[in-house]
Design a protein that fits this description.
Ribonucleotide Reductase, subunit A; single chain; two-stranded parallel ribbon; 15 helices; mainly alpha; 2 domains; two-stranded antiparallel ribbon
Amino acid sequence: MNNHVSPSHLTGREQTVEERMAGVNDTTRSALVSTMLTPRFYTTDFEEMDKIDVEPVRAEWDVLIAQMKSDPNRGHFKRNEDWDDIDINALPDDLREEFTDFLVSSLTSEFSGCVLYKEMKRRGTNQEICELFGYMSRDESRHAGFINDALKDFGIGVNMGFLAKAKKYTFFKPKFIYYATYLSEKIGYARYITIFRHLEKHPEQRFHPIFKWFRQWCNDEFSHGEAFSLIIRSDKRLMEGLNKYWIKFFLLAVFATMYVRDHMRPAFHKALGVDIDDYDMRVFRLTSEISRQCFPLVLDLDHPALRDGFRRMERINRKMQAANARGGLAGRLAKSWWTAAATVNFVRMYMIPAKSNAIPATSRLQPVW
């Protein structure tokens, strides 16, 4: 963290954006960027969230809260003899760049949850909801800090205090927070456990020690998703009527974003020894199966048009990147064209019929995959 005395302290005036950015490293700058593919920071109607009534899911809620209160991962996010020091400069340039992007993206996602959950705890008066968000904020803070320690090994740590103040916040209605965060936590679990199980079988492809921490880590993500599942199930309206269309929207948006983002990291996945398409479909299937606990529908992942849509979205994204690199008027026009193409493609994918799901009587699942 930058400890110098700022000009605003001496002059009594607010720093300009340029002055505040002057002492920020490139890693923090990259974490500040907000695009359709980068993790965002969210704010919401905290007063509405404070009114959540968990009585309809009381039995399952109490069990989950007791588990989170026991803090099973209390001592997990600490280095031990399993942590192998590596020289990031020894990695090929493309792998080093993509791995750094993976870490920064993961940190931003974890810290985004930490900030949102902490704010809910600070503003709320609903004791049960505040208790839940306090535990989740605790967990996400550990995750983000652990990733940042790995970045600091390479001299490129993120200034998280600055990130919390300077990052652009997106307002979502509470129900959109529930859908999006539920999927974020569950797909995070699916991603981490898939990588962990693969590297268990192929330890020679574990090019950084942080992957050894993924099993307990992803179990935190799983528990957080369980909490949002119960919140969704506590109000039947969130699973009925027009909200089914929103659920389908968030399912498709989260899956499409992951597909495109993963294909931007070919060297990273090659180093892990995984085929990107196969990995993504494994994660999608696991996430879809889990989401049956509270979503009345799942995407038809076997539909050829849906898979074609994912591939088309990835090709469009490459065209948009090329337009950005070109710059100028021609670049802006091309970017607008390909943005419209992405929108049309998303709508076509959205129109593919989903599969109905009968929501089970109980929600709780166990992370056994």
